[in-house]
Amino acid sequence: MATNSKLVVVTGGASGIGEATAxxxxxxxxxxxxxxxxxxxxxxxAADLCESGMKAAFYPLDLGVDESxxxxxxxxxxxxxxxxxxxxxxxxxxxxxxxxxxxVAEFDRLFDVNVRGTLMMSRAFGAAMCDAGAGTIxxxxxxxxxxxxxxxxxxxxxxxxxxxxxxxAAEWGPKGVRVNAVAPGYTLTPAxxxxxxxxxxxxxxxxxxxxxxxxxxxxxxxxxxxxxxxENASAITGxxxxxxxxxxxxxxxxxxxAQP
Length: 260
Description:
This protein is of the alpha/beta class.
């Protein structure tokens, strides 16, 4: 993915992991199209890249609205052509809540944006990729894909995205389209920092439960996404890869009754 002929679409590209991913691909010479609900920030990221001699464009996108997804896809396909890669980074977070106390409207919103939005975006570009006989898609899962979490709506959705990734990989593989997912651990994005600052996340608890004793950086997730979209990963499809500084293994290891 190192030639200037590549086209990469990144949803949620205005901040966090999505922004880091957009910047990584743009730095490689690819043309990046950013989609995000935050138009002001999305335009700024695209402008920053262009001012640095890279190629980028921004289009507004609301993953919770089918018409917005369709318009976004039509604009990209008509103006820029079929993407070589689609990174479904757009999504929303949820604070911990007990099941009996959760607002069901919040659950519905999380599903609409994180799951249905990813599905509809993948359909919009997956059809063109299948017709072209090539393409890669990356979905954003989470540690909650693998472990129970009090972020009920978020966790259920992220678990579902793993299955969606596998279904798309199996169905579109014969057409030349690879589909994978990354499952970032606690990543120090602006959204995470805001939760730390507000007292909704305990950074010390995260660090002590991670084998590497630190947070994941957005650029580390972006680098993994870049690899999975590259020819170096040409035999990899249908996987969900944790990027968690060893949080999954450490929490399992430390909870075992018999430790050395």
